[in-house]
Specification:
Number of strands of chain B: 0
Transmembrane segments (chain B): 23-46, 66-89, 109-129, 135-156, 168-195
Shape of chain B: elongated
CATH topology of chain A: Arc Repressor Mutant, subunit A
Number of helices of chain B: 7
Protein name (chain B): Beta-carotene 15,15'-monooxygenase
Order of helices and strands of chain A: HHEHHEEH
Strand order of the largest sheet of chain A: 1-3-2
Organism (chain B): Reichenbachiella ulvae
Keywords (chain B): Membrane, Transmembrane, Transmembrane helix
Radius of gyration of chain A: 14 Å
Oligomer: heterodimer
Radius of gyration of chain B: 20 Å
Domain Winged helix DNA-binding (chain A): 16-95
CATH superfamily of chain A: Winged helix-like DNA-binding domain superfamily/Winged helix DNA-binding domain
């Protein structure tokens, strides 16, 4: 039981962060607006959660210019994918008990 | 209490993964519509090709210039009506679920479907121009099936087995040329209807 709780990741307790990770583990990369539409959150809200995930190195940020407009792509890092999978496994274990 | 929250989390994760990576608005009803249109088209094609012949004796497919143009016309009509029907029902489903019809997932689906499909269309035109008319029906089945298998990664997973069955029917059709039209009706008509109903029941009812 104690091990399970250890694997539950505080970084994914928030719904928005959980959503960002869910989307990024099944897609190679997504841009800001697609994520925003998908999760139905405001710009500021999404930006702050992206920031907290990227400071943990769970997601990578790739900035580029598309038709002279900034276009930012987000992707899950191997570290982030690993942490996310562990988190889901822990939830599944918890629900089994 | 805690368990309830985590259960919800898991459901959220699954829903977001599906919505962000697959095109899930594809309606079963569009399959049924395409199937019905295909059956009507096959009937019309049959009437055109085997016109005015004795039903009990051996029948020969009449392939005149006029018939050929008629057949291509029927084929285009079937394609257009199926697309319109498919779009109509799929749009209805998307609206109900509050999803966009044309998004990245839809684009990916269409591109991956179109690569084998366009190839097949060209192959059929070439085969037709060389006079191997009997191969057109089975080839459309094969390439359509390949398109479905290819596109299934980006939409409901059942599409894959539908594609494999279309390929199988197409291969049978290549071996038994005379049954081309019947197999075509079976694949594009009956299979679409059966799959459409199954998917409608599973995802929409």
């Amino acid at each position: 039981m104690k091990d399970i709780l250890q694997d539950l990741n505080k970084a994914f307790e928030n719904k928005v962060r959980l959503g960002i990770m869910s989307a990024l583990v099944v897609n190679d990369a997504m841009d800001f607006n697609s994520l925003k539409d998908l999760l139905g959150v405001t710009d500021g809200n999404l930006a702050s959660h992206i920031k907290s995930l990227s400071t943990k190195d769970y997601i990578s940020v790739h900035k580029e210019f598309l038709n002279n407009k900034p276009h930012t792509q987000y992707a899950a890092t191997p570290l982030g994918k690993d942490a996310f999978v562990k988190h889901i496994k822990a939830i599944e274990q918890l629900l089994k008990n | 209490m805690e368990k309830q929250k985590y259960l919800e989390d898991l459901q959220d994760i699954k829903s977001i993964m599906d919505r962000s990576s697959r095109f899930i608005s594809l309606s079963g009803m569009s399959g049924v519509a395409a199937g019905v249109v295909a059956l009507i088209g096959a009937y019309l094609a049959y009437q055109t090709v085997y016109t005015g012949q004795d039903y009990l004796s051996y029948r020969r497919a009449e392939m005149t210039q006029v018939n050929l143009i008629l057949l291509i016309g029927i084929a285009c009509g079937v394609l257009a009506l199926s697309l319109i029907g498919g779009l109509y029902f799929t749009q209805k489903k998307a609206k109900k679920a509050n999803l966009k019809l044309w998004d990245n997932q839809a684009k990916r689906l269409v591109i991956n479907l179109m690569i084998p499909l366009a190839t097949g269309g060209l192959v059929c035109l070439i085969v037709l121009s060389k006079g191997f008319i009997g191969f057109v029906a089975p080839f459309t089945l094969i390439f359509y099936g390949l398109g479905l298998v290819n596109a299934s990664k980006y939409t409901l997973s059942e599409i894959r087995s539908l594609g494999i069955m279309q390929i199988a029917l197409g291969l049978i059709g290549c071996q038994y040329i005379g049954f081309g039209l019947i197999l075509w009706a079976l694949g594009f008509g009956v299979l679409h209807i059966v799959y459409g109903i199954v998917m409608y029941k599973k995802y929409e009812a």
